[in-house]
Amino acid sequence: MSKGLSLDCVINEEALKMIEQKYSSLNLPITPERKKMAELPRGSKVLRNPVGTAPGFAVKKGDFLVVGFPGVPQELKEMFKLYADELFPPKGEMVEFFVKARGVPESSAAPVVERLVKANPFLYIKSHPQSSEGSSYIEFHVYSVTSDPRIKSACERVAKELASELIKMGAVIV
Questions:
Q1: Is the pTM of the predicted complex or chain greater than 0.70?
Q2: Do 96 and 123 meet the contact criterion of CB atoms below 8 Å apart?
Q3: Quick one: pLDDT at residue 108?
């Protein structure tokens, strides 16, 4: 990853101390292979591994945050749970509006959804085909994560516009 980021790969002293402590507690020596786990991109923040030994890291490169976790699935999952909020803080609250429509195929609604999302890139529209008591319908979720009240209003407006467009296509809003 260091090479891909155009950063030097260096022994991170904090990571090395974590690794040394782990193997010392197991009465095992630090071998070159074990020491290699401390090689991280220069400038990385070390992420403690609560399950295994190899640390993870986070490093800023331009406008991007690059995160590396060990490849063992259980380690990766636990580290993501531990660091997700710190590394990827929410940028506001979830704003969500629902539109339930009967009588229009999801594929027919897709161009309308695409147009609305393209015109409003701050939101996302997800369609969920459903079936209940022998009747099918599509539940559309119009949502965004925001702290801006204007975006909340815009999401509501887009949900109403979606309902209106679906009605023009013959749908019944339920």
A1: no
A2: no
A3: 95
Q: Which of 102, 155, 153 is nearest to 131 (CA)?
A: 102
pLDDT tens profile 61-71: 988 999 999 98
Would 124 be classed as within a structural domain?
A: yes
Take residue 72 and report the two structure tokens written for it: 């063992």
Looking at residue 143, which CATH number applies to its domain? 3.30.70.360
Count the helix, strand and coil residues of the chain and give each as a percent rounded to the nearest 5.
40, 30, 30
Q: Phi/psi class of residue 104: alpha, beta or left (left: φ > 0; alpha: ψ in -120 to 50)?
A: beta
Q: Are residues 62 and 77 in the same domain?
A: yes
Shared-domain flag, residues 67 and 128: no
Q: To which residue do tokens 């976790």 refer?
A: 69
Give 111: exposed, middle or buried? Use CB within 10 Å, 0-12, 13-18, 19+. Answer: exposed
